[in-house]
Amino acid sequence: MKDTTSPPSDILVVGAGMAAHRFVESLLRDPGAAVRVTVIGDETHGPYDRSALVGVLSGRDAAELRLDRSVFRDDRVRLVRDDRVLHIDRSARAARTRARRTYPYDVLVLATGSFAARPVVSGGRLPGCFVLRTIEDAESVREFVDARSRSLGRPLRGVVIGGGLHGVETALALDEAGVGTTLVQYADRLLPALLDTDGAAVLQEGLEARGIAVRTRTRTTRLDADDSGAVTALEFQDGSFQRADVVVFTVGVRARDELARNAGLDVHPLGGVIVDDTCATSDPRILAIGEVANFDGRGIDAAPAARAMAEAAASQLCGGAERFVGHVDGVHHTVAGIDVVSFGESQPCTADRIEVVTERRRGAGVYRKVVLTDDARTLLGAVLVGDTSGHASLRRLVGVGPRGQLAAELCRATHEDDAPVCVHIGMSQRALLTALRGEGLLTFSGVGARFGREPGCERCTLAVARALTSLAGEPVPQHTPHRQGEGEQPEEHVRADTTRAVVSPVSGGALTPEQLIGIGRIAQDLGLHPRIIRSRIELQGVGRSQLPVLRDRLSAAGLECRTPLLDSGMRISEEPLPLTEEHASAARRGSDEPHRGRGATGAIAWGERQRDGARHRCSPRRADSPA
User: Fold this and answer.
1) Bias regions of kind Basic and acidic residues — which residues (predicted)?
2) Are residues 236 and 176 in the same domain?
3) For residue 398, what is the DSSP state?
4) Whole domain around residue 263: which residue ranges?
């Protein structure tokens, strides 16, 4: 279409929503595109931001939702409002509308979106029962609330049925409009597609703090009318009921794919016109974008994905190579003043996906969880509620190997490296890392089989995740409870088959320029990696056989070094740190158990398993002399 000498192509866009607007906007970016575009919408309004629709309930002017109108001032574009395409004649390449007009096309783009679903329930269409999908819907709800409140002489009681993102936003909007609102959810939690149980609990607490009641695991069986015929109450499966003067259903949407079905296009059994990555349907002259489309067996249920489809379709028609790369999983939203981020495999259902809670502050409404592969080498997804800092960096790590941002996430709320992790793993973080390295354990499943990690213990899982991530080659930031004072020994850490040498002058004080040059030459000759850490110089990657040579050369330069021990012994820790009542009781049960060691090779000594199944763990200590 970039050849301006060819006749203009007639592009007919059926639907005038957000996807259609982005398609036309993208198409017209090429000023030389020889096209004639007709956009047909069945609403009296032009394209608007449907995601902000709930604001109309609480008094926002619908005009503020309008999308940029400048695209329709282009001479190549015509917008037809308040008309609907009823039939597509593929053989004649023409579409007929409700107004009995016929529009020919060279390419037709289906952008009809979706419609709001209604549950099949007795009384679901009584006066006062609404869905919320269009500006007309929102204005109808607002007008009803105003009129009904004046009629009854009191504030209304409202119920929102459906606890997804749209339902939560609708409940908030009704609350802001002065309606006492109850949110009813059939599932066991709010936002079940995005949040796990703990993340949803934080959100629910935030809603309840604002005065919005939440009922989960609740199915509505009937809506009753008052003497005027308007809705007055809801009955639930458990026999309870809820008074209500206005009810809004937010139980999902369905693709408006009837035009495609009637035209003989391939439609997914669950709804949506089947498209490929060029947005083409089974008819190459018909494209589908936005919520009416189905790509890779899934509907398009997010605005970013709809916009990406629109841009890909426009690129294809302009001779470009852009393709729709797939669904945009996840959301970043602020609900009731609470930031919510969910992306990737945030709720795994297989045993090889490990959920690691990196931070939980109940009083502050903060919950952060990442999902890792069994070897902790790959981030699969995350749920962040309350504190969503760093979410963009984390999201970029999905599907790739470990990075520093993941290490920082795992260290957000851990305790000191030398303190016991918990009663299930009765050793410190440092000892756990050494033990895993010594036994070659590189997976959660391997650690669980060997050390008995308690899957339900957040402290166990977090500690193992840190250790595995470190073993995978990622530097894990160390938690230091205080600043290192003068004369304290710097922290030192052991790698699998090497150690580090901390270099300093024999007499103390500052290094001379000659000594700095000498350190560099020694590192170069021995293949070591010098680093400056906390105002000290470390030579990393020192092998056991290199230590004598290193010490001799440093001594000749007037320098000395300290190296961490390459092995450790064990001692029994009689009082593991109890973290909860469960931990405390387990510690009390295990305190009198006999113990047996596994030798002096640095392995863990295990307590005998008693009849009640309790275990007593051991903590490492440094051996009296290097092995």
Assistant:
1) 483-497, 580-596, 608-627
2) yes
3) B
4) 9-115+254-317
